[in-house]
């Protein structure tokens, strides 16, 4: 699935959505901590927005990571 299609109806850039979701998943942070870290970078979103993005895109990003790891193992 192309990135343009999955982010079609969102006003926020795909890079910010990916950053927020990956920060929440990769590090042991709460939704409010992710909100605070993004606010320090000048990105004003709520913790509910991060939760919505995580529910919507978390599985898609996990599948991409899993796919790239499998390809790396096969090429090794």
Keywords, separated by commas or semicolons:
single chain, about 80 residues, mainly alpha
Write the layout of secondary structure elements.
Layout: H1 3-6, H2 14-26, H3 31-40, H4 47-75
Helix pairs in contact: 2-4, 3-4
Summed up:
The chain has 76 residues and is mainly alpha-helical.
Description of the molecule:
It contains four helices and no strands. By secondary structure, the chain is mainly alpha-helical. It has one domain (12-75). Helix 3 (31-40) packs across helix 4 (47-75).
Instruction: Report the end-to-end length measured between terminal Cα atoms.
Output: 26 Å
Query: With helices defined by DSSP (H or I, 4 residues minimum), what is the helix count?
Result: 4
Largest beta sheet, briefly? none
Inertia-based shape:
globular
Mean pLDDT: 92
Strand pairing plus helix content: what structural class? mainly alpha
C-alpha Rg (nearest Å): 14 Å
Q: Secondary-structure element sequence?
A: HHHH
Number of domains: 1
The amount of beta strand, in percent, is under 5%
